[in-house]
Amino acid sequence: MIDNTIIRAKHLTKHFRDFWRRPKVAAVQDVSLDVQRGEVFGLLGPNGSGKSTTIKMILGLLHPTNGTLTVLGHDPRDVKTKSRVGYLPEESYLYPYLTAEETLNFYGKLFDLSPTVRETRIQQLLEMIGLSHARRRTVGEFSKGMMRRIGNSHRR
Fold it and tell me: How many domains does the chain contain in total?
């Protein structure tokens, strides 16, 4: 039988420590969940309940203190796993002085795309997200909606 589990967390715990390495904050405590392929999943809770910390562990940006976590069947810190996961925060962290083309070129280099492939993909993405007309404008001049489109475009 094929395992369609995309995210599997078992007894996931994250404690942050102080300067002397003493436990300071229990940000996530004994969370277990499975998210299946094709399932829509919401992580809800009040401020300070560990939602952002859990997402950071799923993205491989933080390592759990205890418990196990797999994404697509592998450690979330694995580079191949990260190449298959997209994350769009509410605030995009884009360089405001780069143009739309320069921004996409930067991401293409991060993904080790050849110059020819990058050029083709940049043109395709700008057309797909409706920003061909703004290819040479700096991202800092973009509206919030335009920034979200350019910030999410490299994940397509």
Answer: 2
